[in-house]
Amino acid sequence: MEVAPADARRLHVDRGGACFGIGDVDHLDAALGVPHTSHRAGAYRRCFERSPVTSWYRLGFVSILTAEQRDSWDRNGYFILERFASPDTCASMLTRAAELCRLDAAGKSIGHSLVDPERNPWADAVNPEDRVSKIFVLHDWDPVFGPFARDERLLEVISDLLGPDVDCFLSQFIFKNPSAIGQPWHQDSLYFPFEPDRQVGVWVAVTDATPVNGPLSVLPGSHREPLHEHVPDRRPDANLGYTEIVDMDFVDAQMVLMNAGDVLVFDSHLMHCSTDNESDGARAAMVYHYAIAGTIDRTYQHLREQSEAMGAMPDDIKESAAAGVEESPYHWMPVWRDGSAVP
Prior knowledge:
By secondary structure, the protein is an alpha+beta fold. It has two domains: 6-64, no CATH class; 79-341, Sandwich (Jelly Rolls). The protein is built from eight helices and 20 strands. It has helices at 25-32, 41-45, 67-76, 87-105, 145-149, 152-162, 299-305, 315-322; strands spanning 12-13, 49-50, 57-58, 62-63, 78-81, 114-117, 132-136, 166-174, 194-195, 200-205, 216-218, 230-232, 243-245, 254-256, 263-267, 272-274, 285-292, 296-297, 333-337, 340-341. The strands form six sheets. Strands 5, 6, 7, 8, 10, 15, 17, 19 and 20 form a nine-stranded antiparallel sheet that branches. Strand 2 and strand 3 (57-58) form a beta hairpin.
């Protein structure tokens, strides 16, 4: 589903069963008790306080999500925004990621990003990007990936789930080149020992995700599970930070096939995995993680208490944890405040 501009979208307001469209402005203004001035969804949303019980905004409740998206989020823990990113955006992301790999291979600066090599490299690799698993931390500095993290259309969706004040704290470009192995079943919340412990992930399909190139699979409804025990992935070619849930039945898992430009929005407790890439092309994706502003990050404390709890970590992270560092290893960037995008 393509996301329309905010002023063209329907805004659903529940007051004893009544539902108004954004075009029904006279009735909507009267129902909400706000001056008849701006009709943008954001202007209405700022009139509400976020309910402590649910992520909807309340007088009744207000959401820019469709009923189908809200139902999927509540029941399954995820939904897909179809054709959200344009072909040009996907092409720019793929080109920029390759450029960063080549700069890094040449010993040139790529800011504070981290290039993680593929442990099971492609036999036909030619260019540096063919040998890379992921590039971490792109959201807070890169001229291509940063603007997407702050895309107002996306942030309106995220803020509907998290509230009026949102930060982006982590990002990673995933190449998933041919022969790359899949990531075992896990919950992203394992890597985010935060308070509160619910975050929202955004998985942008930069290329098509097909049955043979290592797509994601999810376990619908598993977002209602607590954080399960994860054991380190002991495969010799396991990539950085891979862990595995071994105490859950995944018989009801569903494969998530996506076209380039589709965006998967998912709860950090949702159990998901990927399979090996058995194709002759990359299955590229760009992932962003968002949290409520003011979230308390206890990553270093967690690592001091359980050194292998999050799988294999970069040496600098382990050294900082051992040294008693308390500030976050993540890169927290304000993106949404009081119902508006942060420039």
